[in-house]
Amino acid sequence: METPEQIRDRLLARFPGAEITVVPNPGTDAQHSLLLGAAHARALAEFLRDDATLRLDQCSNVTGIDWPEKEIVETTKVATPDPANPAGPPKVVEQKTKRLQLGCLEVVYHLYSISLRHGPVILRLRTGNRTDQAAVPSLTPVWRSCEFQEREVFDLFGVTFHGHPDLRRILMWDEFADHPMRRDYVEPDDYEWEPTPHGTVLEKAKAHYPAPPPAAVAPAKGATP
Amino acid sequence: MSVSDLSAPAAGSPGSRVRAVHDSFHGDLLEVSMGPHHPSTHGVFRMIVTLDGETIVKLKPVFGYLHRNHEKLGENVTYLGSMPYTDRLDYLSSMTNNWAYALAVEKLAGQAVPERAEYVRVILAELTRLLNHTCLAGFLMQDCGCSGTPLMYAFREREYILDLFESLSGSRMMCNYQRFGGCRVDPSADWLAGAQKLTDRYGVFLDEFETLLTGNEIIMARTQGVGKLPPALAIGAGVTGPMLRASGVNYDLRKVDAYGVYPRFDFRVPLGDHGDVYDRYMIRVLEMRESIKILQQALAGLPGGPIMDPKAKLRSFRPKAGEAYGRIEGPKGEIGFYLLSDGSPNPYRYRIRPPSFINLTILEDMCLGHTVADAVIILGSVDIVLGEVDR
User: Fold this and answer.
1) Selected residues 133-152 of chain A with any CB under 8 Å from a CB in chain B
2) Among A14, A59, A103, A161, which is least packed by CB within 10 angstroms?
3) Is residue A58 part of a domain?
């Protein structure tokens, strides 16, 4: 089977304006993946499915990955001439630079060819950010197997798939508000929203629901006003 | 308004709303919620079925009653810590779940597995396949209305296999047996003799089982031509395992990926012709015959040597950063694990590809136009375990 680089070059020849990057996999497995831009993702996926040498007719696995915003500290060593002794060895100073890596949600597709018995080709789609641009084009119209799996990513990660025929929550209940697979998800104290009167749950509940002000406390039974 | 209009969800609709048609040709459509505690749904599975008379015009599966966010649990424990949790996915085939997970981690860490462990894994995986397929046939017949007898025959055989699992791993169903780079304990000579005895006898049981079921006229009339799945749809919808092969697609990961020591064994891949419920039953029976062949070869050729790779690391195991997707041919289809490591003791991302969840994608397509009673046996032939569907 062609390497991801060869597939990328062939795709770029066919779709000149498309954004395609090879994402290296540093692990021992070294299966590199292709990061597709949202604009051409559907067309590229259709090409991969129908192309005679690839024929990636089955999308086996669809999953999401959450990449929250991360502050990265990079340490670089800068050699400057020593002002006290200009002729001597330069002084090496460590400089720390901080940069903010923007967060995103990533959807990963593992494609196999059943008719030609090869694979996987791994596709990745990334959202703009984790809040208001958490959307990617759906590949369900290309591979039917994405239908439930994209719903699952929508449910657990909060990625909206444009063009999905039936995008609803699938594992959590419809009224549930959050996305549990996100890294920064905090579980509610009690799923029934009724603090149970014991242990850590009660402690957490006290923080959430402070005791009512004394004036609002109802008089005890039998007490005269 | 025709029936086909109703089967396609309107854009923007929640997917389960149905407009009743009032004219002289149609009666009211009836929406029935089957499950989650209906005995034929194999657990807490629910289908919202829309009926025109007795004919299904729309079917929406509802999941999540057994959801415990297994993947989140996996991200919060070490790599080894997830191994017992994988038993609870498809609790009929914990040995193959263990193997798929061990394979993915071994791929991620570049861990070698000794030959003896590979053979033991094959023996256990094929025993699991026997167990799973026997139970499936029993449950399917129960769904057809053969109350009791086939299921009890199946469960009797299942107990013999579970006894073997218990004496090897300490637990009947939650085996927690595979490790990264081998297996937890070495099977004794007594255990292997027991496995050999079971393998020799299993063909006799299958003959008896088939005499009861395969040529049975009522079963043939009940299951043939029901729930047909065309091969093109099956491939596109990600259907794997015996369901895919019942539709006539020759794709078995034991042959395609040739993982473990499977290339050393001589076995065939049975294929169906029609892709109906009967073919799906028959494929399982034929696969059991092939499993017996593999078991005979694996038990005869089992080499000596260590069961664990001496370099394998269980405590403070930290694979270097990277990702890996490992998959094997489980009894229900392709069970895969996708792991993303950032170099820490816990996986950054731990994803299970659940075969029975994905095989349910085309449940509606198979059921449209059939009756509710047919939907029950179509679901039975898909072979689902809710522990894996809902995760």
Assistant:
1) 143-149
2) A14
3) yes
